[in-house]
Amino acid sequence: MKEIVIISGKGGTGKTSVAASLAYVSSQRTVLADCDVDASDLHLVLEPEIITEEDFFSSELAVIDYDKCSDCGKCNDICRFKAVKNKDNKFFIESNNCEGCGYCSHVCPEQAITLIRQNDGKMNISDTKLNKRLYHAELGPGAENSGKLVAKVKNSAKKYARENELDYVLVDGSPGIGCPVISSLSGANLVMLVTETTITGLHDLKRVIELVKRFRIKMCCIINKSDINTEIRDQIKEYFLSENIELVAEIEYNEDFPRSISAGLSPAEYSIEIKTIFENIWNKIIQLT
Ligand code: SF4
Ligand code: SF4
Q1: Quick one: 63 and 28 in the same domain?
Q2: 3-37 per-residue burial string, b: 16 or more CB within 10 A, e: under 16
Q3: By alpha-carbon position, which residue is closest to atom 4 of ligand 1?
Q4: Domain that residue 77 falls in
Q5: Total domains, the chain
Q6: Ligand at shortest distance from the CA of 64
Q7: Prediction pTM value
Q8: Tens-place pLDDT, residues 204-245
C-alpha cells in the first residue's frame, strides 16, 4: 500500500481540484482521505453517502462543582490562561479561555474541579459515486487539535486500505505548514505539491518544501495556472531543478476548473481534455511511489 499526499504551501492553488481529479482517475484500488479538516471540501464533488459517523474528543474543559467549592481562589491564582474569573466573590471558569491543562484541579483543596472531555468534531466514513471509500471530518467551530483529527482520518483510511488490500491511500492535505500538514505528511510515500505562478505561491512553496525535506519524503509537483505569470513559472521550474523535484505537469489556466466545481464535479469528470491530463499525471505519480 502506497500513500500519496497532496499539499500546497498556500490556499487557492487548486489543490482540491487536483485531489478530486486524481481521485476520479485513480485506480479502483484506492481509498480517499480528506485531511483538510479545517475546511474539508473534497466531499462536495464525490456525492458521499455517510456509512459511519464517529465523534472526535480531543480537548478538556475544567468545571467547578459548587457543592464542594469553598471560594478559596487558588484556581484563580494559578491559571495562567486567565480562564478563572470572579464575580460577586464566586469563582467560575470561562470556557473560551480554558486550555484544559488541569493545573487548577491539582491545586484545588476541595477537589471541586473536574475536567470534562469536549466533543471537537467528527469523522465520517462514506461511500462515494466513484465506488471508492472516503474518510473525511468536520472540526467543530473554534475547536483546536486539528492535527489529531488529521491523524485519526488518515490512520483510519490506512487501516481500511490494509484490511482490504488496496494499493493506494490518496490524501488531500491542508494548506500551509502548520500542525495539520505535519500530521498529514507522516508515513507518506510521495508528496505531490500543487503550486501556482504567483510571488506568494513561490514563497509558500519554498516553505512547504523545506518542511517536507525534514521528513525525507519524495516530492513531485504540479504547476497549476502555469500561464498566469511565465516569469514566476520559470523561477519555479529552476527551483525544482535545483531541489531535484520532478515536475509532473504544467496546467494552464482553464475556466473548466471553476465551472466543474460549481457543477459538483471534479475537473477530470467535467472535461475529457482535463481527464487525459490527469490520467497522465496519475500514471507518472504511481511510477514515483
Ligand atoms: S480552588 Fe477549588 S475551592 Fe478554591 S475557588 Fe477554585 S474551585 Fe473553589
Ligand atoms: S484547566 Fe488550566 S486553563 Fe482551564 S481553568 Fe484550569 S488552570 Fe485554567
Answers
A1: no
A2: bbbbbbbbeebbbbbbbbbbbbbbeeebbbbbbbb
A3: 72
A4: 59-119
A5: 2
A6: 1
A7: 0.86
A8: 999 999 999 999 999 999 999 999 999 999 999 999 999 999
- Residue 217 located in a structural domain: yes
- Tell me the pairing of strands 90-93 and 84-87: antiparallel
Where does the pLDDT of residue 41 fall: very low under 50, low under 70, confident under 90, or very high at 90 and above?
confident
The confidence score (pLDDT) of residue 107 equals 97
Per-residue pLDDT tens digits for 104-142: 999 999 999 999 998 888 999 999 999 999 999 988 777
* pLDDT at 145 exceeding the cut of 70: no
Distance 110 CA to ligand 1 centre (A): 7
- Indicate the SS3 state at residue 175: strand
Torsion region of 18: left, alpha or beta (phi above 0 gives left; psi -120 to 50 gives alpha): alpha
Q: Which three cell numbers stand for residue 205?
A: 512553496
Ligand nearest to the CA of 96: 2
Do 168 and 97 belong to one domain? no
